[in-house]
Design brief:
Elements: H1 2-22, H2 27-42, H3 46-68, H4 74-95, H5 98-125
Helix pairs in contact: 1-5, 2-3, 3-4
């Protein structure tokens, strides 16, 4: 129990750090950071790391293009970004093992829970 709390806290700190660090990064830098994070969390092989890096770069460039496209309204951007995330997950599924993919989903769920808790605390503070 104590170990799981320590691990959860470490993941929270790591996620928060990456979140803050990514705000002013280029798509290439964001893709590299995400790849390194996935490599350490999911214990990727060298071959998997190369494939994941390619996927992350492709998605980061597409995401940047969508966000900077002034001809799209907010709803169109949300829809396009959602589709991009679906494509990324599908590509990850082709590269990762079943256990790695499940671990990635579990970590994502934990991050969402931490983000939700943080958001609730901020709302209460207001």
């Amino acid at each position: 129990m104590k170990n799981s709390k320590i691990i959860a806290l470490a993941l929270f700190v790591l996620t928060t750090t990456f979140s803050i660090a990514q705000k002013n990064k280029t798509p290439e830098e964001r893709a590299e950071m995400l790849t390194e994070k996935m490599k350490s969390e999911l214990l990727l092989s060298d071959n998997q790391t190369q494939k994941i890096a390619t996927i992350n770069l492709d998605i980061a460039l597409k995401t940047n293009q969508i966000k900077s496209d002034e001809s799209m309204d907010l709803e169109a951007k949300k829809t396009a970004l959602k589709e991009t995330r679906k494509v990324r997950v599908a590509k990850f599924k082709d590269v990762l093992t079943v256990s790695q993919f499940e671990k990635m989903k579990k970590l994502k769920k934990e991050r969402r829970a931490h983000k939700s808790i943080k958001k609730n605390k901020e709302e209460k503070a207001e």
